[in-house]
Amino acid sequence: MMELLLQPWPWYVAGPLIGLMVPALLLLDNRTFGISSSYQHICAAIVPGRSSYFAYDWKKTGKWNLGLALGTLLGGVVAGTLLADPEPIAISAATQADLATLGLTDLSGFVPREVFNWVALASGPGLILMIGGGFLVGFGARYAGGCTSGHAIFGLADAQLPSLIAVIGFFVGGLISTWVLLPLIF
Amino acid sequence: MTSHELAEVNPPPLQGQAAETAEEVGELSWWAHVLVGTLFGIVATKSEIISWFRIQEMFRFQSFHMYGVIGAAVAVGALSLFLIRRTRLRTVRGQDVSIPPKDLGTGARVAVGGGMFGLGWGLTGACPGPIYALLGNGVFIMIVVLASAVAGAWVYGHLRERLPH
């Protein structure tokens, strides 16, 4: 049993478990699955500035969501320590070959160490991927009114048209980054 | 502000409960949300959807894994919503379950915002949940990505009046 838990979890186990987040949050306290609103709550709590978007009682509205975000981090701690898999992630050979042409050959971690490190913050690729990419994730998710969890999972599960458009947008953006931007950056 | 957002800001008050009890319930409820998040973080890590490389596989159509995870999650989420509506299930606090609609607006916010999010997803290889889970996994450099994402949300909050929604 323990051995099974340590191995990578297949999609038909992980997918349904993630899908259960939707009823769990609804039945717990009428909340809809979504992580990116935590960014709005962090702003409201720390640096609301002059925007009405951040002028609300974050403790009342956002505490549950910040709890969910904190839990996600703690889940990473649990999985990364108690359930850590000693084997490297088995990335498909085709992807490995594609990334090698970009000069990315260290596939040992969750992120490409060649770019995702403190020194690389002073380099073009590091700046674009970490700072630029992060900025787009936060700006885009709040503009769209949700991210992968809120739109792609909750919204699609509820057959909502805005979410379908958003998810198509996610995908078009991701394809442009992968096929156009990454070759330009590296 | 849409009615959905207003509803979120002002959740319906608990009925017939003293303020003290409500506070205790609130505290318990907060920890329950932390626990749900913890399970999400564990599943996200163990299914490797927090891996930059797995996101690349997806956008290069070189593995079924990510499609399987998201597809199965949507299917189970949809079935759950169907059953909740069908059985008129109530929340653990006895309230009716309300499933708010997402705001479409003119479509511009989801199309443009979604596209921007996708660009960022392809670059960072992480969406908001995985960014937190990666931090928990000791990939501390993701604090830079998280800070940038919060900055992005902040700038959006200050520009939103001028953006098409």
- Distance from N terminus to C terminus of chain B (CA atoms, Å) equals 11 Å
Give the count of structural domains of chain A: 2
Straight-line distance between termini of chain A: 43 Å
What is the general shape of chain A?
globular
Content of β-strand of chain A:
under 5%
- The number of E-state strands of chain A comes to 0
Helix-strand string of chain B: HHHHHHH
Q: Decide which structural class fits the backbone of chain B.
A: mainly alpha
Q: Main sheet of chain A, how many strands, which sense, barrel?
A: none
Strand content of chain B: under 5%
Biggest sheet layout of chain B: none
Unreliable spans of chain A: none
Count of DSSP helices of chain A? 9
Mean pLDDT of chain A: 96
**H/E order of the elements of chain A?**
HHHHHHHHH
Report on this structure.
The complex is a heterodimer of chains A (186) and B (165). Chain A is an all-alpha fold. Chain A folds into 2 domains: 84 residues, no CATH class; 72 residues, no CATH class. In chain A, helix 4 crosses helix 5. Chain A is globular and about 50 Å long. In chain B, helix 2 packs across helix 6 and helix 6 runs antiparallel to helix 7. Chain B contains 7 helices and no strands. The longest helix of chain B is centred in the N-terminal third of the chain and has 28 residues. The N terminus of chain B is likely disordered. Chain B is globular. Chain B has a domain of 62 residues. Chain B is mainly α and 165 residues long. Helix content of chain B is 67%, strand content 0%. Chains A and B meet through helix 2, helix 3, helix 4, helix 5 and helix 6 of A and helix 2, helix 3, helix 4, helix 5 and helix 6 of B.
